[in-house]
């Protein structure tokens, strides 16, 4: 016998209602990092654009940082934690397997009715998870979703590794996604090149290793193409953008992408990496939270280990 199950009605669209960031208390200078890797403040600034980054203290673990960002985003959106349907955490630096981070965050927030799930697509994690949140809301599985990108990169990098020690930082960024009468999160464009996964991989001790120049070349070639496809999918052109918020991997990558897309000087370019480093899946929401008061469409592009990438246009909260 074939049966027809009852389904839930979704919403016509979804949008980002609020964005917030948590930055660890400890600011770490280039000089402090350079001392361990035979480098210099000058080299780090020239090759990456980074001036400083934050490192988490013992009490600033993945769940506490994620919760702090999420609680602020919920308060800014005026949403009661009890009305959150899902908590999603995008991360690559969580060491545990059985307990994912999202249930800890949901519990700390008091989001007692929320489903809780981690998503892993490394530094591309935020746009992947945002596409998931949008689908949950439009499909009727959720009304309000808390989505956090959170990383404690200092747990998975070697402070003596010249290609990563200066690059990465710790932190969390969160958005609340909720129902909307029209579409405020454009179609996602995504992909992955698993054949090149060795360029960014965990070694046998769980430390992230990177072939920097190879990743650099790949990122600068993939971003303009996926960005154009995301603009097309949203029915916009680069001239319509208010902001460009790529994953904050290296300032040179951001500037090269902006040039390739021929963005006008009126488009706000996210350059949060200068004082935040590369915070993996947290970098896009953190950079969004750091923008000055900007409204209108913003183009997000995530890319990283996998090698995975994803992009979409959103309406800024
Ligand atoms: C990591 C990165 C900044 C290195 O810059 P680069 O210009 O590619 O550096 P290279 O590895 O080609 O090395 C260039 C020179 O700098 C030296 N060097 C490498 N790391 C150094 C460091 N930390 N400090 C000082 N010198 C360094 C090298 O020994 C080399 O010297 P040589 O020319 O005398 O042989 C760059 O490759 C990068 O940003 N890659 C992408 C990283 C990224 O986006 N990762 C995250 C994706 S999520």
Structure description:
This protein is an alpha/beta fold and 317 residues long. The chain has helices at residues 30-34, 41-48, 62-77, 101-109, 125-139, 212-234, 251-260, 273-276, 283-290, and strands at 13-22, 26-29, 52-55, 86-90, 115-119, 145-152, 170-180, 189-192, 200-202, 208-210, 243-246, 268-269, 297-304, 308-315. Strand 13 and strand 14 form a beta hairpin. Helix 3 packs across helix 4 and helix 6 (212-234) crosses helix 7. It is globular. The mean pLDDT is 96. Residues 231-315 form the Beta-ketoacyl-[acyl-carrier-protein] synthase III C-terminal domain. One of its GO terms (biological process) is fatty acid biosynthetic process. Residues 117-194 form the Beta-ketoacyl-[acyl-carrier-protein] synthase III N-terminal domain.
Summary tags:
ACP_syn_III_C, 5-stranded mixed β-sheet, binds coenzyme A, acyltransferase, 2 domains, 31% helix, 3-oxoacyl-[acyl-carrier-protein] synthase 3 protein 1, 14 strands, Peroxisomal Thiolase, Chain A, domain 1, globular, transferase, 317 residues, alpha/beta
Helix content: 25-40%
Second rung of CATH, namely the architecture of the largest domain: 3-Layer(aba) Sandwich
Individual helix count: 9
**CATH topology title of the largest domain:** Peroxisomal Thiolase, Chain A, domain 1
Oligomer: single chain
The CATH superfamily of the largest domain turns out to be: Thiolase/Chalcone synthase
Bound molecules: coenzyme A
Q: Look at the structure and give the mean pLDDT.
A: 96
